[in-house]
Design brief:
Blueprint (H helix, E strand, L loop, with lengths): L3 E4 H8 L13 E4 L1 H6 L25 H65 L9 H12 L1
Antiparallel strand pairs: 1-2
């Protein structure tokens, strides 16, 4: 068995000239047996072989181009229906988000008002706790004291 040493890009070009499968690296090396490829020729038709391996997501064998188009249109319709449902859920979540945002704004405003009120009360408390400084006696009080002392 003779094998050839090819990069993934060259191997992809040789096996499927019109389509390139994703490669792990463009300069990685793959080993290819041309005899094995010739024993199982590649067919460019639309049909797929889902009979030997179970197909993912319920895909089935497609035999004609019109059937493939019909299958794709049906899948597009399914995806559009799923998108519509997701958009409905999203609209409901959007309404919840807006309601919570309004409620949060109200709470922040109330918190700011309470912080200002607390600062004012602390200032009043500090003022009330300071010891009273004696006020100088007025002239009338001093005169009265002099009259009482001399009498």
């Amino acid at each position: 068995m003779a094998t050839e040493q090819l990069t993934y890009d060259h191997l992809a070009e040789r096996l499927a000239p019109h389509a390139r499968p994703p490669a792990p690296s463009s300069n990685a090396i793959a080993y290819h047996d041309p005899a094995a490829t010739m024993a199982r020729p590649w067919s460019p038709s639309i049909s797929t072989s889902c009979t030997t391996n179970p197909c993912p997501r319920g895909h089935r064998e497609v035999t004609s181009r019109s059937e493939a188009v019909a299958t794709l249109k049906a899948r597009v319709a399914e995806l559009e229906a799923e998108l519509a449902k997701a958009e409905e859920r999203s609209a409901g979540h959007r309404a919840d988000l807006e309601r919570e945002r309004d409620r949060t704004d109200q709470m922040v405003t109330a918190q700011d008002r309470l912080i200002t009120e607390l600062e004012n009360l602390r200032t009043l408390l500090q003022t009330a706790q300071q010891p009273a400084t004696p006020q100088p006696a007025s002239r009338l009080v001093r005169a009265w004291r002099w009259v009482r002392a001399t009498a």
